[in-house]
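Justification of resources, computational component.

The compute hours requested in this renewal are based largely on the per-chain cost of generating structure records like the one below. Each record pairs the submitted sequence with a full structure-token output. That output is archived, and it is also reused by downstream analysis tasks.
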Amino acid sequence: MEKQTQLKANIVELNVVKAIAILAVLIIHATADSRVNVPWGSVTAPFYLLINSLSMFAVPVFIFINGLVLFYRYKDDWTPKQALSFYKKRIKYILIPYLIWSAIYYVYYQWLQHQSFQFDLNTFANLLIWGKSSYHLYFMVIVIQLYLFFPILMTIVNKFKFKAYHMIALGLLVQGLFYYIHHWIKPFSHAASMMPNYFIVFCVGAAIGMSYQSFSKKSNQLWWVFGLAVFVGFVYILILLSSQEGGASYPGPVYVILYTLYAVLVGISLIWIGKIVCERSTFLTRWILALGTASFGIYLVHPLVLSEWRMAVNLIPQHSYYHIYNIATLLLIIVIPWLIVVCTKRIKFSWLLWGR
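The structure output for this chain reads:
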């Protein structure tokens, strides 16, 4: 059993961060078609590009949260003997839901494409490795890799008494080396699903988690980080536009550096926002916290709702109600998955679907 003597209080404001991050995930998926299909030159094309691209912080921010929570929980309470219980918990609440939802989507997309049903174990196993049963499950593969590596990393951190700046240096080293190999030696075929591709974001979260009490006390002074995040995000958008539409050419690392910096700044900004929200006990605060609590389940189930909705109603950009349709799409993939999670979480063994 994991030691219980040094359990720390839950970081409530992280539920606000999760709520905003899951909204960003849903915005990305609700506007993905519009970003491509709405013709450039249309009045609304820049809006779809802007809202879709600026929401791209979602996956790195969730990885940032994982690093923060793991190091907050275990930095002062870790021994290598805890590795077995750590793995058992993650198998139960992460790996099993991943296997079940991968199987669900493997079957569902066959039905959606009117294919004759078959369950080929080799095909399914190959899909599992990189989260290919559905377009959103690659995130689960990244998280599983992080959890597999974490006991080793935590043992090294404690043994050599790493400080926060060591973690950031390690993140830069690992991700920089990964980028160098991928772009100048031999490309990785599944780079987007590989942990090192996001390692600096994880390590910044870890660095904050190592001394979260101290960080939390100073977080009310971090209003400027939000402004910097907006600035970096818009610079990133302008560079994308000038390269995609204007034919400009920038060195590859520019995109990676701006995108990563944007995600880190957004993650820190959302903690600041989260603390402000939690200081106000309002109806809206309770809803935001509830959305954050349900975010993992919403993430898992929303592609089913989105696919069914697109099958039933799929308007073209030229339709007079196209933009209303997109708003309705976003609302549906927020509300319906949220209701599904809330209504089923009380059922025994619901952890098989939603983890914990």
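The first helix runs from residue 13 to 37. The two ends are 17 Å apart (CA to CA).
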